[in-house]
Amino acid sequence: MTYSDQERRKPRQDVKVLAKYRTGRGTQMDVRVIDISETGCRLFEKRSPLSANDKISMRIEALGPFDAEVVWVEVDTIGIKFVKPLYGPVFDHIKSVLSESLI
Description:
The protein is mostly beta strands.
């Protein structure tokens, strides 16, 4: 089940940013962040091995690692909640600078 904007703490910003995550089992995967807020993000990944409540460590481009938890998984998208909110300038850099570099 996905969360509506009303259920989220912060609204999400659409982005196109490359990322990687690592599971507790050591599996590392390349993904695309398709929206982000200070408290979480949505990933695009075909045939994800992730399940709700999985703990992961993420790198967004060269930034991170950010500890996170999987909230939901649907088809090719995954809802992620960061353990600690992203620091404001880091969030601004991701949504403004990194996302612009992929356009």
